[in-house]
Amino acid sequence: MLPAKRKGQDPVHGYLDVRQQGRGSDLDTVALRSSAQKVLSFLLDQHEPVTRPEVALACQLSRPTVFAAMKRLEDLQLVCEVGQRSGVPGRSASLYELRTEAALVAGIDIGGSNLRVALADGRGRLLAETRQATSATGGPGVVKQVVDLVKSLGKGTASARAPLTVAGVSVPGVVAADASTVHYAWNIGQPEPYDFRTPLMAGLHAPVVLDNNVNLAALGEQWQGAAQQLRTFAVIAVGAGVGAGIVHEGQLLRGAHGGAGEVAFLPLNPDYRRLRAASPDEAGGLMLLHTAQARPGWHDDAAPTSVEELFARAADGEQPAMELVEEESQRIAAIAASICAIVDPETVILTGGVGANAALVARAGELINELAPFPPAVIRSALGERASLVGALAVAVRTAQHDLMIKAGDANHAPVATSAT
Predict the structure, then answer these.
(1) 307-315 and 319-343 are packed helices; what angle lies between their axes, rounded to 10 degrees?
(2) Contact predicate 259/184, CB 8 Å
(3) Which residues are bridge partners to 115 per DSSP?
(4) Per CATH, which fold does 226-381 belong to?
(5) What digits encode the pLDDT tens for the residues 224-268?
(6) How many Å apart are CA 315 and CA 115, to the nearest integer?
(7) Cβ distance 306 to 290 under 8 Å?
C-alpha cells in the first residue's frame, strides 16, 4: 500500500523524512505532509469511518498533528467527514473516511468464456460487479467489448461516477516484458502477439496494469483468498488449459520474458509433443475431453461431453472415467512436484473448471507425497472463478493507493481552496 522509497523518504516506513528536508517553516511543512501520509495509510485500511482521536491513537500522533493532517487530506479532497459518532459518553465526535471519489479502480478478467468486471474504491471496497459472455474474438474485438462493459457498469453505479483512476486487467496469455504485448491468447482468438494495453488505455481513459490470468489468481488468493497467511505458494489453474502463478517470499515470479508459471510447456510426457504454442495443453480440459472421446468402454458407448459429467461418472464408478481422473491427477501432481523442486512452496492451490474438482484436489494431494521431497499442502481455491478478477482488483487498488500516498506527501499537490482568505 505504501509507495516505494523516493528521495527524501524514510527508508523504513516510506514516509517523508523530515530530517533531510531543511529547517524552520519548511521543516513544519514536511512534517505535516509526512503526518498526512501516515494518517492516509491508516485510513486506507479502515472499512468503517473513524474519529480523529481514534486516528491519533492508532498512528501514535498528537491530536493537533492529526487535526492538521486531516485538514490537509480534506483540502486535497482525499478524505471527508461523513457524520457524527453518537450514543457514547461525552461530546459527539466527527467521523471521517476516504472519499469514494478519491480513487475509482476497475478489475477486469478477460476469459475465453466470460468477461468479468468489478469497480472498487481506493480501499478496495467493492462498488459493483458484472460478467458477460465473451462474444468477440481477436484482440481488437475483445478490447471493444471490455471497454463497453466497463462504461456500462460505471454508468449504472451511482457511487462509481468519478473518472477511472486505474484498471487492472487479467489476460489469458503471456504478458511480455513491455507490459503491453500478450502472446498465446489462443482461447480468445488471438494466438499472435497483440498489444492489449494501448487500446485499453485509450478506451478507458486511464492507466492499465496488465498481467497473466493465473498470476493474478495467485495475487487474488494472496489478498482475499486461501493464501492470505502464506509467503511461498503456487496456484495451479486447470481449465481449458493449465497454468501456474507462483509467489515466492511474498513476491510474484514473472521471469525474464513473463513466462514463469507456463507449466503447460513442461516436458513431462515424452509421448506428447506440442506442435505449436497454441496446441491444447495435455493437462487441460480440452485434451481431457478429447481423450475421453477416444477411450472405449463407456456406458451406452456415450463418452462424457463436459468435465463436470466426466467427474460425476467417475464418482459413480464408471471405469473409463475413473481412469481418466486418475491420469489427470497424476499429471497435476507431476506439475506440482516440478514447482516444488524449484521454489519449495508451503501450499499448492488448485482452481479452474477442472482443477477445483474435490476429487482431483484430494487425489493430487495424495500423489504429491510420493513425488516431492517436502510435500506441500494441496488445497482448493477460496475464490473459485473470481480469483483472477480479485487479483486484477488487487493490483489496481495497490497502484491507486501508491498514487494517493504520493499526492498526500507531495509538495507539488496544492490543497484545493475551500474558502476565501
Answers:
(1) 110
(2) no
(3) 110, 132
(4) Nucleotidyltransferase; domain 5 (3.30.420)
(5) 999 999 999 999 999 878 899 999 999 999 998 888 998 888 877
(6) 31
(7) no
